[in-house]
């Protein structure tokens, strides 16, 4: 089955601890519903090198999905996208020969 990487970019901090807890509960429920290879991998100590104006990647997930359309629907359901200033990049992982 093809594998896809979802990268989490940007995203605002919750306004209250209660909002943060509710968001995390929705996110963990979504993560639990995935056929995941790497369910979630937060990143820390990220540095952007070069002169590109990019959004910092906050973490990633690697999932199994039958095709790009199915992976897109899975990604669109992610609660991370409910946050202000958030984006997600979806890419199919290429299978390297060898």
Automatic annotation (TrEMBL):
It comes from the Bacteria. It holds the Pfam family YCII. Transmembrane segments: none annotated. Residues 17-82 form the YCII-related domain. Belongs to the YciI family. This is YciI family protein. It comes from Yoonia rhodophyticola.
């Amino acid at each position: 089955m093809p594998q896809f990487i979802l990268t989490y970019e940007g995203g605002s901090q919750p306004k209250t601890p209660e909002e943060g807890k509710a968001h995390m509960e929705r996110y963990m429920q979504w993560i639990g519903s995935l056929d995941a290879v790497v369910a979630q991998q937060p990143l820390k100590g990220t540095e952007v090198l070069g002169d590109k104006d990019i959004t910092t990647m906050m973490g990633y997930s690697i999932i199994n999905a039958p095709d790009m359309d199915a992976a897109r629907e899975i990604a669109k359901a992610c609660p991370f996208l409910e946050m202000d200033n958030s984006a997600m990049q979806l890419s199919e992982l290429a299978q390297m020969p060898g």
